[in-house]
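Ticket opened by: R.M.
Priority: normal
Category: complex prediction / small molecule

The reporter submitted a protein together with iron/sulfur cluster and asked that the result be attached to this ticket for the collaborator who will pick it up next week. Submitted input follows.
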Amino acid sequence: MEAYLYESLEDNKVKCNLCSHRCLIKDGGRGICGVRQNAGGSLQTLVYGKLIARHIDPIEKKPLFHFLPGTLSYSIATVGCNFRCQFCQNADIAQMPADHNGRIVGETCSPSSVVAAAEYGGCQSISYTYTEPTVFFEFAYETAKLAADKGLRNVFVTNGYMTAEALEMIHPYLNAANVDLKAFNAKYYKEICGARLKHVQATLKLMKSLGIFVEVTTLIVPDLNDDPAELKDLAEFIAQDLGPATPWHISRFHPTYKLTGSHPTPVKTLTAAREIGLKAGLRYVYTGNVPGNAAENTFCYSCGETAIERRGFQVGKLRIEGGQCIKCGAKIDGIWQ
Ligand code: SF4
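Result attached by the on-call engineer:
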């Protein structure tokens, strides 16, 4: 299928404007993501409807903690990614084209079959997740449009590297996003992820200004992005540029893919990072991948009451009514119904 968001250039070259790499692609070549190919001057998406994963997940797994808690989200992915994170937790599918000579596989599906399966499964949303939804934008866009018509919400779990053009195109149908802000360090983005930090910052700010509900996730990798001064800058960016109501998830790293020589993030590092976030003024800071940790709960920023109890992806008691803490009446930020 012909891709959206590209320009034709001389000699059958094309420029893809879907993500901030803005690849210049010669006739016959593919972009960095490995799933968009120039065929005689026409850019084609090679993954339209080729789903490598489809599951029903709790929305908490995305993670989104302030968006329809306790509901199910129909979650889909194709292969491919525009990043090369050395710690990728889904490298078998996300890096398949890059690591296996352009290999693309998946079950052929239509947007209407995804929406019907989401409705049948009792889901309130569809999540475009596991790999990078930007690189299967055309399928995500068509599915999101149809889902919105049926009263379902749409969620991107993303590295935030889509261009402003892509985001502006999909935003009428995009209700929420969890965006990875992987570090606050241009070198880390370049060397560990193959991308540039400034574009992710721009996407986050644009999402907020377009009214998309945003939560942010940072995976803390020992010795690579755990410097307290850097985490302070990152937390202050969220608090000041996105707002103190933006939930921040600090996630525990486990050695995987190309970073197997490291060790899991010590829990005390995550706890210290959470303190940094709270000190920066963030109202909701969570630690992830540490089951049973009290920092999975939502606490009222005003009176300290436990507003939402969680254990892993399970939601316990909600002590929120009409979006307010039942103890002190403070507004607990989020989309609750
Ligand atoms: S989506 Fe990004 S990585 Fe893929 S071809 Fe387009 S600009 Fe390049």
